[in-house]
């Protein structure tokens, strides 16, 4: 065993994995339809990174906190166990935030969600960078390097677009639309109390929310209302957008559920 592990910590890691998985999926859906070729490529690359983070986190869950145990035996975590987590769970067993489930078929909304999510994600990884769960700390080290590029990408676009009257207005409208969903990222997930108590996380994620909201205000130059810390729900409810999103994710698998892809 490479650190503490129980059902509560499993839920804590699973929520992070689900957010990374769905955010990666949402980015991939802009391939071929982004406003210009460079953004097709950028969103594809960022989406791959997020899906890679999700795979790492699902491997921690699937191996009861010790993915290196199977790797050391020459096997690695069975892909079918990862697929079962990523595609085969009942919707009620997902722990994703509603922000990553939402449909953003407007480019301004997609870009703003990209910035909001990745800026919050930086804070989230920081909280597990020194985790007593060694595979999670290792995942944070790798992810934080990639996330620097994600934030630079989003910031570079906002630097150009926010001062432009039409583009800036669209981005700020998107921000107003998305903020009620975005604060849900800080909804305390099931197992977080135990994760903090055992050193898996340094502090509850919602303790970083006010810092994040200040960063949002400064980045977009807007006077946002005060946002209260979300009432804990355990993230056990799915939004209306979740079902269609999961169907798109399972489109190839559903062609032949018995096949091993």
List the helices and strands and how they pair.
Elements: H1 7-28, H2 37-62, H3 67-72, H4 79-87, H5 98-101, H6 107-127, H7 134-161, H8 165-182, H9 192-197, H10 209-220, H11 242-249
Helix pairs in contact: 1-2, 2-4, 2-7, 6-7, 6-8, 6-10
Structure, described:
The chain is globular. The chain is mainly alpha-helical and 261 residues long. The longest helix has 28 residues, at 134-161. The chain is built from 11 helices and no strands.
Q: So, CATH architecture?
A: Up-down Bundle
- As residue ranges, the low-confidence spans are none
Helix content: 55-70%
Shape: globular
Largest sheet entry:
none
- β-strand percent reads under 5%
Number of helices: 11
The number of distinct β-strands equals 0
CATH topology: Ferritin
Distance between the termini: 30 Å
CATH superfamily: Ferritin, core subunit, four-helix bundle
Give me the secondary-structure category. mainly alpha
Number of domains: 1
The average pLDDT score comes to 92
Protein name: Phenylacetate-CoA oxygenase subunit PaaI
Organism: marine metagenome
